[in-house]
């Protein structure tokens, strides 16, 4: 079942190695991030494959969950390391109990791989997440190394959060190169990146309707559907900003606790994430409310009721550029499994867009739309560096300058494509 056109993903090699280990493997991520494609290409041809996005299969197993174990046990017992791949496994939570029963009965026989796009139903039903038996994996929209830029590589550029390919010598099938305008316009879902440009806007609008709306409606996760649709549009418009439940609640027509629950729903479905405020500072007047980001700019545009297009990105590129950098940094930290992303802001307006914390080191990052950064753009970085001696040694301005620039002994202006 290998795809005719398979593009390499940053996690492919490490995931292939981990899938050989004798545990249950759980992979989560939003719809259309490429989970099924990746797993279909990594798993052996004789894998037993069950797709619960198929309404017939889903209905049958919801009505009679025991059929899952019967399908597995029909595979000849002499086969060892038999892979069983269940796509959209959260649709039938009882499957997790069956997996535990089969796996505990014969660990040498089974290699279960369960894939899902929502943790909400599993949490709500108290599904068995197989503690002590499972590896957890995540997949996100494309990161910059997976989808290069149509520009020459600058070998001396140093990223504040490098993501080198695991095997530098290997020849790879890379996703089509995009310029910055395309990335701000259409996001980074694999299916959008590989589609013709004149189809991307409609595909993203369909994603918003079919997945963000119909999927939530089908799972009966929201009682007041009209209020949720209003909330979704407002949350998308406010993506990249500081969470303000009090402002959104009256506009959506529901209470603040309901708005909080709606935001949690977006996180459970991997549609959004929070970036907390950095609070471990000597300053006493820091903001503490997190920011909320949609996981993909193209989906953000569509959910906001906007048609994803280059014209949209050109209208106000600065805030979109800041979101793009934040999303890219967040995805990298999730893949690396080491570190955390913050933002920093005082009540008097001093702000650093992003703070990367890894191994007790802090790296402040400012995002500027400019092509000609100067030392004035670095003033908040320099203040942060001065306040955190020993932990913060270097800051970066990510911008549109064509080559890296040393603005100060501790501040480098970095082209966006060198991030």
Summarize the structure.
The protein has 419 residues and is of the alpha/beta class. The chain is 38% helix and 17% strand.
Q: DSSP strand (E) fraction?
A: 15-25%
Q: Give the number of DSSP strands.
A: 14
Count helical runs. Answer: 16
Major sheet characteristics: 6 strands, mixed
Tell me the count of domains.
2
Largest sheet, spatial ordering of strands: 9-10-11-12-14-13
For the record, give the distance between the C-alpha atoms at the N and C termini, rounded to a whole number: 35 Å
Radius of gyration: 23 Å
Overall shape? globular
- Average pLDDT confidence is 88
Q: Structural class of the helix and strand makeup?
A: alpha/beta
Low-confidence stretches: none
The residue fraction in helices comes out at 25-40%
Secondary-structure element string = HEHEHHEHEHEHHHHEHHEEHHHEEEHEEE
Output the keywords.
single chain, 419 residues, alpha/beta, Rossmann fold, 2 domains, 6-stranded mixed sheet, 5-stranded parallel sheet, 14 strands, 38% helix
Structure description:
It contains 16 helices and 14 strands. The strands form three sheets. It has a six-stranded mixed sheet, with helices on both faces. A five-stranded parallel sheet has the order 2-3-4-1-5, sandwiched between helices. The chain is an alpha/beta fold.
List the helices and strands and how they pair.
Blueprint: H1 12-19, E1 24-28, H2 35-42, E2 48-51, H3 55-63, H4 66-73, E3 82-87, H5 95-105, E4 110-116, H6 120-125, E5 134-138, H7 180-186, H8 190-193, H9 197-218, H10 225-237, E6 241-242, H11 245-252, H12 256-268, E7 272-275, E8 291-294, H13 297-303, H14 310-315, H15 317-336, E9 340-345, E10 351-358, E11 361-367, H16 379-387, E12 395-399, E13 405-408, E14 411-415
Parallel strand pairs: 1-4, 1-5, 2-3, 3-4, 11-12, 12-14
Antiparallel strand pairs: 6-8, 7-8, 9-10, 10-11, 13-14
């Amino acid at each position: 079942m290998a795809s005719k056109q398979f593009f390499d993903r940053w996690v492919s090699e490490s995931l292939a190695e981990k899938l050989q280990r004798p545990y249950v493997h759980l992979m989560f991520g939003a719809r259309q991030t490429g989970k099924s494609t990746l797993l279909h290409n990594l798993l052996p041809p004789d894998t037993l494959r069950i797709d619960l996005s198929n309404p017939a299969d889903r209905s049958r197993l919801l009505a009679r969950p025991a059929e899952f174990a019967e399908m597995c046990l029909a595979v000849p017992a002499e086969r060892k390391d038999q892979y069983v791949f269940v796509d959209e496994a959260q649709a039938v939570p009882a499957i997790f109990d069956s997996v535990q029963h089969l796996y505990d009965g014969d660990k040498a026989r089974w290699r279960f791989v369960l894939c899902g796009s929502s943790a909400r139903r599993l949490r709500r039903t108290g599904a068995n997440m197989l503690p002590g038996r499972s590896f957890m994996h995540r997949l996100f929209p494309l990161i910059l190394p997976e989808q290069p830029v149509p520009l020459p590589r600058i070998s001396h550029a140093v990223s504040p959060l490098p993501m080198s390919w695991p095997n530098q010598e290997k020849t790879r099938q890379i996703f089509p190169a995009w310029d910055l305008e395309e990335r701000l316009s259409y996001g980074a879902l694999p299916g959008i990146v590989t589609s013709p440009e004149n189809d991307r806007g409609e595909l993203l609008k369909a994603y918003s309707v079919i997945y963000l709306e119909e999927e939530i409606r089908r799972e009966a996760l929201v009682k007041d559907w009209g209020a949720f649709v209003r909330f979704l549009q407002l949350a998308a418009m406010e993506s990249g900003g500081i969470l303000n439940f009090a402002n959104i609640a009256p506009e959506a027509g529901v209470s603040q606790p309901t708005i909080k629950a709606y935001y949690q729903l977006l996180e459970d479905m991997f549609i959004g994430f929070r970036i907390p405020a950095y609070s471990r500072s000597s300053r006493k007047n820091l903001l503490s409310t997190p920011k909320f980001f949609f996981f993909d700019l193209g989906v953000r545009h569509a959910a906001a009721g906007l048609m994803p297009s280059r014209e949209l990105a050109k209208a106000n590129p600065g805030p979109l550029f800041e979101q793009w950098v934040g999303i890219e940094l967040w995805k990298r930290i999730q893949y690396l499994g080491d570190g955390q992303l913050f933002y920093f802001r005082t009540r008097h307006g001093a702000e650093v867009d992003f703070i990367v914390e890894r191994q007790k080191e802090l790296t402040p990052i400012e995002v500027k739309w400019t092509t000609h950064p100067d030392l004035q753009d670095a003033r908040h970085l320099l203040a942060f560096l001065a306040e955190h001696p020993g932990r913060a040694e270097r800051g970066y301005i990510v911008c549109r300058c064509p080559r890296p620039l040393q603005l100060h002994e501790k501040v480098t202006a970095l082209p966006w494509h060198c991030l």
